[in-house]
Amino acid sequence: MNIHEYQAKALFEKFGVPAPKGAAAKSAAEFDAALASLPEGATMVKSQIHAGGRGKGTFTNGFKGGVKFCPTKAEAKEKAAAMLGNTLVTVQTGPAGRKVQTVYFTAASDIKKEYYLAILLDRVTSRPVIVASTEGGVEIEKVAHDSPEKIHKVIVDPAFGLADFQVRELIFALGLTGAEAKNAAKLIRNLYTMFWETDAAMVEVNPLITTPTGEVLALDAKVSFDDNALFRHPELVALRDLNEEDPKEIEAAKASLSYIALDGNIACLVNGAGLAMSTMDIIKYFGGSPANFLDVGGGASKEQVVAAFKIILGDPNVKGIFVNIFGGIMDCNVIALGIVEAVKEVGLKLPLVVRLEGNNVVAGKATLAQSGLALVNGDTMADAAQKIVKLVA
Amino acid sequence: MSILISPDTKIIVQGITGAFGAKHAQLSLDYGTKVVAGVTPGKGGQCFEHNGAKVPIYNSVADAAKATGATVSVIFVPPPFAGDAILECVDAGLDLAVAITEGIPIKDMVRVKRAMAGSKTRLVGPNCPGIVTPGTGKDSNGGCRIGIAPGYIHQKGHVGVVSRSGTLTYEAVFQLTSKGIGQSTSVGIGGDPVNGTSHLDVIKLFNADPDTHAIILIGEIGGNAEVEAARWIKAHCKKPVAGFIAGATAPAGRRMGHAGAIVGGAEDTAAAKIAVFKECGIEVAVTPSDMADALLRSAKAKGVTLS
User: A359 contacts in B (CB within 8 Å)?
Assistant: First the structure.
């Protein structure tokens, strides 16, 4: 689960990670109060959406920049009004962009130097890793590619937590001394505590900055949490912003389906994540384009299949449907009955190719045959994929 | 022979009184697997009954292991308690814990994995379909079925299958059996980013097993486990190996069902992994329908007969 920058900054404050003073506003009526809570002078206005590249983004109304430096509060108010309620398109949002429903004002900081700091899971060691770099404020992937020696990593032993010598290692790697070193050490320790205690999947500060007065501040914040651990953090679940999620994905989650919209035209309905991914792959292999990832899980019910059909047919781009089921324990006839019921309910007009294999497959195929539905049978995944690709071509 | 488990292996089922655990304990008993004990804290002394079989239930894994001599446990415990259930197997000194549970918090697994370092217990999973060593009976009955895989699709033989994904494992096994090619053992290591046994661990076991003559290695986008296994195969494994990587069309940054299946960098894409497979002499299945055929191509090239 992702959260907004302003929510992440509130968590930073709770855990003692210094950041510029800020205040969020969800309507123009809140602008004055939010700005009044900040010190006089230069102010940043930041669009709050769950996507990166905001600064270089463009609004669909032509306004340029989702993050603005404003010398005065009056100008900040004006810029905020141009952002709020409008749709921001960045390299990460896709062409549809995201509607800005919250703006975040922060006191503008004097930047001495920018750094990079992140904490996430290192899959190789199965332990948390702290990543730091002297190259902040830029794309870290580019730094890792062009100058990997500028990326410093510290792996934390979960049995003992972050050790002092590891914090020193990071401070030296960043070249910090004096008050900056002291402040950065405290910030790193507190950020690690936050990462660990909130079951975060990733905490990224880019840039982390030093100021001429020796302060070390988190200028930006990108935080996401492990969905599996949300059951023990109701206070974090409350931060979820459904406006940032695909309505079809929310609908799918309600039916315990795992759905992700893609930009193709062949809808897939599959059991199992690995099989669902490779169903998308095989469609592409034979020249088609998948419209979605959809995993109905290992024990799908008739109701889930009906719900799945409704979701995939809600995508106007869909020109055909590919159902690919390997019923290991799952009864193929249950799936077949679900398909028949779903088609009756939604009135299917698109080509449908069904590949059923596994447990009780004979009964499942008989159910489909007797239903009188205009569907096409596929024998293997390859056979079925070629058939659906041909039908939508 | 086989790896990890044999038809003689005695199994404990943790969470045997839950709906999911009970159903699969029944299916394993039907398969002929020696399910000798169940564990549900607070229900010790009761019995799990199925078709005349009476499986005693214990309060702890240690009690169950001591009373029955079981060396392996399969875990169907709900996510909030599953990490603890794995640690209980470690404490009881079991050889193997197989965690089926999906949705265990990553932090719990980070701690469990740290706690298991240096212990004699091996973990397979979590979020995995389990392990099957097929038997010689009808529909491969008489084998050892641990977890949730369908037993009947298997056939006793000499191909080792290792995969993160359940349904893709079944797909591969089914293709093999349909061609009359049996399996030594099929291992689902699970789709989570932090898991116990890796692709490489299983590959090493298959390589050392004289009864495994060829291997199918199924992977996904995300992480570098498949690459690590492939490089080891290139250096150490003479047996025919076929490989498949799912997720070539998955968009970067999106998690595809499995918590581990997410493209983070240039190294963990399907294309990068497939390139390494080819470089390491692994015959790549071009589609998931091609897994058994890819293995046959590799076997033919190496002069190995599979069926």
Answer: 150, 152
Q: Kindly tell me the sign of the dihedral angle through the C-alpha atoms of A80, A85, A89, A92.
A: positive
Tokens 């488990």, residue located: B5
- Does residue B258 have an active-site annotation? yes
Q: Is B75 on the interface with A (CB under 8 A)?
A: no
Task: Using only the alpha carbons of chain B, give its radius of gyration.
Answer: 19
Q: Where are the domains of chain A?
A: 21-107, 113-237, 247-392
Q: Would you tell me which residues 123-162 of chain B have a C-beta closer than 8 angstroms to some C-beta of chain A?
A: 129, 148-150, 152-153
Task: Tell me the residues of chain B between 192 and 221 that have a Cβ less than 8 Å away from chain A.
Answer: 193-194, 218, 220-221
In chain B the domains, ranked by start, together with CATH numbers, are: 10-124 (3.40.50.720), 155-301 (3.40.50.261)
Question: B106 near A226, Cβ under 8 Å?
Answer: yes
Report ipTM for this prediction.
0.91
Residue B93, token pair as written in the block? 């000194």
Whether residue A26 lies within 8 A of chain B, CB to CB, comes out as no
Contact A378, A387 (CB under 8 A): yes
The hierarchical CATH code for the domain A247-392 is 3.40.50.261
Write out the CATH class of domain A21-107. Answer: alpha beta
- C-alpha B151/C-alpha B154 separation (Å) is 6
Residue ranges of B 217-256 with Cβ closer than 8 A to chain A: 218, 220-225, 244, 246-251, 254, 256
Q: Which position among A5, A204, A215, A357 bears the catalytic label?
A: A204
pLDDT tens for each residue of chain A, 393 residues long: 999 999 999 999 999 999 999 999 999 999 999 999 999 999 999 999 998 889 999 999 999 999 999 999 999 999 999 999 999 999 888 888 999 999 999 999 999 999 999 999 998 899 999 999 999 988 888 888 888 899 999 999 999 999 999 999 999 999 999 999 999 999 999 999 999 999 999 999 999 999 999 999 999 999 999 999 999 999 999 999 998 888 888 889 888 899 998 989 999 999 989 999 999 999 999 999 999 999 988 777 788 888 999 899 888 999 999 999 988 777 888 889 988 988 888 888 899 999 998 888 899 999 999 998 889 999 899 999 999 999 998
Looking at the structure, give the CATH architecture of the domain made up of residues A113-237: 2-Layer Sandwich (3.30)
